[in-house]
User: What shape does this take?
Amino acid sequence: MKVLLSSDQIQARILEMGQQIAADYKEAEPHLVGVLKGACPFMTDLAQAIDLPLTLDYIAVSSYGKATKSSGEVKLVKDLDQGLDGRDLVVVEDIVDTGLTLNYLINLLKARGPRSLKVAALLSKPARRLVSVHVDYVGFTIEDEFVVGYGLDYNERYRNLKDIVVYGA
Ligand code: IMP
Ligand code: MG
Assistant: This one.
């Protein structure tokens, strides 16, 4: 499959993102919320790139529907372990496609009273957006192609690839 983003490119960009987040949160302790399972490698590498005290938690959602299309209905599969009251939240996502998942998550998490909420996504596919969502930190903006690797799957496979590749290409 065609390599879209090599491991080296991904790691270099995550270092920059981590430095930017560290600069933005000098006075606060960010609480990173990773979206399982796709964001796991990104969450791990991003957290290590942020040179600040921080805390982590994970949430899992699934969209009803087929593997490569989001139906728009989102179901909470695993909730957070910790409350969010007064915390400075950074939602960490693998990819923003239609935006429906992130839109659902932002509404769910905002209702729990965080002091602030920002979003970091490794990838964004703006051409496919159905709802507008603000992403504060974007790793890479990509074309409308289905990609796998570095956490991203097709039917649960390919999450373990170090590079991000175009599925089927
Ligand atoms: P959205 O709700 O359409 O923004 O979709 C977000 C979710 O769909 C992501 O968290 C991924 O799990 C999945 N997804 C969207 N595009 C891709 C892709 O190109 N490869 C793998 N998963 C994708
Ligand atoms: Mg996902």
Summary: Helices lie at 7-24, 40-49, 100-110. The CA atoms of residues 86 and 115 lie 4 Å apart. The pocket of magnesium ion (ligand 2) is lined by residues 35, 38, 94 (CB under 6 Å).
